[in-house]
Structure formats: structure tokens, C-alpha cells
Amino acid sequence: MSARDIQLDDQGRLRHFLTIEGLSREILTEILDYAENFTTVGHQPVKKVPLLRGRTIINLFFEVSTRTRTTFELAAKRLSADVLNINISASSTAKGESLLDMLRNLEAMHCDMFVVRHASPGAAHFIARHVAPHVSVINGGDGSHAHPTQAMLDMFTIRRHKGDFTRLSVAIVGDIMHSRVARSQIHALNILGVPDVRVVGPETLIPVEAPQLGVHVYHDLAEGLDGVDVVIMLRLQRERMSRALLPSEHEYFQCYGLTPEKLARARPDAIVMHPGPINRGVEMDSAVADGPQSVILEQVTNGIAVRMAIMAMTLGRAGGEA
Ligand code: CP
Known about the structure:
Helix content is 35%, strand content 14%. The protein has 2 domains: 3-146 and 301-314, Aspartate/ornithine carbamoyltransferase (Rossmann fold); 148-299, Rossmann fold (3-Layer(aba) Sandwich), CATH 3.40.50.1370. It is an alpha/beta fold and 322 residues long. The protein is built from 12 helices and 9 strands. Phosphoric acid mono(formamide)ester binds at residues 65-68, 141, 150, 275-277.
């Protein structure tokens, strides 16, 4: 069974959130609309709503993370759930326990959700196929395959600044080849009706099948940025490169690094995004990262509301007011 087949229950509601691919515009819009309810929770004196009181959520991060793990934990706590962060290096997998045995033991503690980050594509899907019927799984990033909650917080940020998706030009710049974020963003932008999705980068970092994903390919940064509304910069994913695909970071920055001069090719009101972590001086200049068009830290803040919405929806509590 594919990831998209097991994501929905018999009534077409989200049970797991593993990939954007195959989801409808209605479901993505429902997530974005529902997340709007949660944006004010962080400004309240008591930063909590009771939607998931009594539920237990376990963060299983087999790969490093700052933003995703922390915002999932905050989101769960703001929904009043109990949250456990498993320290994988200190868990019994280090003594040879299999992933499935670890899951069975955690399920025996009556948990309701696993949030999973793993270096292997398909890991969250594998776990979703093996959990008990009442347990939901959310993919926090699996290898170079998918990072669906990142894509949704990016869509939320774009909608807040630009409104209607159906009039936008969006350029995704950098290491498309190894980026789970780019793959999920491309699916989300296409499903939400963005007519002009561009990928920009050297030939070695753009997969040959990119045009079949519904994007226009550019190898020249100035051409790729010409007139766009949204610029999404990506990190070079060196940890996933099996061979040298670039001459040097210095030369990469000369060709593809975003500077204020290069950004001037985009629309004057274009926003600049980056999923983080940023490598300043490699994919972007600090003058852009910290400049007036940057919404990078807004993306992080929006991640809490969007992850609250996805957790509440998958655990079957959507529809209530936050
Ligand atoms: N954007 C993102 O996934 O960041 P982390 O690796 O810090 O979670």
C-alpha cells in the first residue's frame, strides 16, 4: 500500500501525514485554514488549548533537527498533550533492538502518535504500516523523499503574504536533487494551483525527471528569479551527496548565492524563504537572510500553528475552535 493510500481513513480524513503527494487541494486548504486558529495561542498568557489533553505523543528523531523537533514538541504541549522525546542514541536500539520491537514497546505504553525523522526514505511509511489502528504517524522528514509538514508551513507563510496561490510565480533555488523539502513543496504548490513553479540550480543538483514534477527548470539564477513573487533558497545537502557535485562553495555562491543585487530580479515585493538551517555565504548573503524581504523566522513561528493543526486533525479532533 502506498503512503498516500494509508494517509486517509474510511471517511477521507487524515489519519497519518506522510507525504503531500496524492492529497487533495481541499485537505491542504483545510490544514491551512485550521492552522489559522492556532496562530494566537503563542501570544496568550497561558499558551495552551485543551484539544489533545490526555493524548501521548512520542518524538522519534533518528536524525538531527533543531526546528522540526522543537516545534513539534511545542505544538504538542500547546495542544495539552503529553510529549516524550526519545533519545535514540541512548535507547535500546543501541543494544540491537529492532525498530519494530522498539515501536511495540512504546505502543505498550499507550501512546497515540509517533513523529518520525529518519535518514531512510520510506521510514515513516514503514512505521505507519505497522502501528496499532488508533496510532497516527507524522513524517518529520525521511531521507531525500519528503518533509510534508515543512512544505505546509511554507504554504501557510506564502498564503499569509500573497493570498491567492493561483497567480504566483515561485522559484526554488539550490540543491533540488537531495532536498525532501523541495519535493514536498513542489507537490504542494502544484496541488494548490500555483501556475509557475521554477527550480533553479546547476545541472548536477537538479534531477533529470524534474520537468515531470510540473516545474520549469533554470540553470541561470537571474533568469530563474525574473519576476517571481516567492524565492525559496535551499541548503547544499552535503550529507546526502555521494560524490563531488560542485567545484567549491565559493564558486557555488558566485553563481547561485542570493545577494541583494540578484534578488532585485524578483518582484519588488517578493518574499525570501529558507527552511533552515542556513549556511550564510554559501546559499545566501546575510544582507538577504536578515533583510526586509526575508520571512525565514516567520516560517519557524508558523511551523508551530501548522503542526498543531496537523496533529489535531490526525488525532481526529478537527472542527473544534482553538
Ligand atoms: N527545516 C528543518 O527541517 O530544520 P531542522 O533540520 O532543524 O528540523
